[in-house]
Specification:
heterodimer, A: about 150 residues, mainly alpha, 7 helices, about 70% helix, B: about 170 residues, alpha+beta, about 35% strand, rod-shaped
Chain lengths: ~150, ~170
């Protein structure tokens, strides 16, 4: 598997990570491309002491942090993505979930996207975020609670 | 309120655009740009170092030039001793270094070469540097002066002094 194949394998979830955290398609694309461009530079230094997925999301997390410091979240997020609805989830329910997620702060969104959208184990997501697993679990619990409050309003 | 987390997995199903090709193009562009700057900086640094070590003044050029000859010729005239210390081949002419040592501190001596195209008299010593055109005969004139008065002409015959003609002879 060469680097391009590896990137393609993770392309969708990296994009989903940014789209669901940032809420805007154009910026999500830009940040995802930046992640892969940096991953090319960093590929030679990757020692395989984490999974490729964790490594890539570590880069994505840093890209997101830098964009956040540059004012990425100062503008209101939008719900521009209206993807095809998977079976079993109505369009309205999906939209409600997306809206509820978008209504949260960026920190809560990121935690929920990593674990509840993309399926990371909390311990692995904590590694990506560079915090302890316990700290991450506390953040996750609070984010889930806030999401439910917004969703059930 | 239920304790079960909401099922957000459906939000992972997104229609992603083509990202990887563009990312690879960005990476290649940055790589080339970064390393072009590194190469350019290295070339400029090397050029600056080379330039800095090049002799610039006439004195530096004469001191560094080859081939050279040390004639050891000297004159002892009214109140001053003059020695012809070096004769060198310069790129466009012949370089002379004289040492002018007055016997009295009160006297102000000077030396000149009428044909010279360049001259230098470092303030902290007794040296006098001249650049003159190459000649067919190897014969040059220098003049010693004191307090603006001409004292003595010096005739310098490089051929009869057996200075190698590769230093002075015009081609």
């Amino acid at each position: 598997m060469d680097l391009e194949d590896v990137f393609r394998h993770h392309q969708r979830e990296i994009y989903a990570y940014f789209l669901r955290t940032v809420g805007r398609q154009a910026e999500a694309e830009e940040l995802a491309q930046e992640t892969f461009a940096r991953a090319c530079s960093a590929a030679l230094r990757f020692r395989g002491d984490s999974s490729v997925r964790t490594w890539l999301f570590g880069i994505a997390h840093r890209v997101l942090l830098e964009a956040s410091r540059a004012g990425l979240f100062d503008r209101p997020s939008g719900l521009e993505d209206r993807p095809d609805d998977p079976p079993g989830v109505s369009a309205e329910e999906r939209l409600d979930l997306a809206r509820a997620l978008a209504a949260l702060g960026p920190g809560d969104r990121e935690v929920l996207v990593m674990v509840d959208v993309l399926g990371f184990e909390p311990s692995a997501a904590a590694t990506v975020a560079g915090v302890s697993a316990d700290t991450y679990r506390v953040r996750l619990h609070r984010a889930r609670r806030r999401l439910r409050e917004v969703y059930e309003r | 309120m239920s304790d079960e987390p909401l099922d957000l997995r459906s939000l992972a199903d997104v229609e992603e655009p083509e990202l990887v090709q563009e990312a690879l193009r960005t990476f290649r562009r940055r790589f080339l740009t970064r390393y072009l700057w590194v190469v350019l900086a290295a070339v400029l640094a090397a050029a600056a170092i080379w330039w800095a070590v090049q002799p610039n003044s006439l004195a530096e050029r004469i001191d560094a030039a080859t081939p050279r000859d040390v004639p050891g010729l000297s004159w002892h005239t009214q109140g001053v001793d003059v020695g012809l210390a070096d004769v060198v081949r310069l790129r466009d002419g012949v370089g002379f270094r004289f040492v002018v040592i007055p016997r009295s501190e009160a006297a102000q001596f000077c030396i000149s070469m009428p044909e010279s195209t360049d001259r230098e008299f470092p303030a902290d010593g007794f040296d006098a540097y001249f650049e003159v055109p190459r000649s067919s005969t190897g014969v040059y004139q220098a003049t010693i002066g004191c307090n603006s008065r001409r004292i003595e002409p010096l005739r310098i015959d490089l051929q009869s002094m057996h200075v190698d003609d590769s230093i002075w002879k015009e081609s």
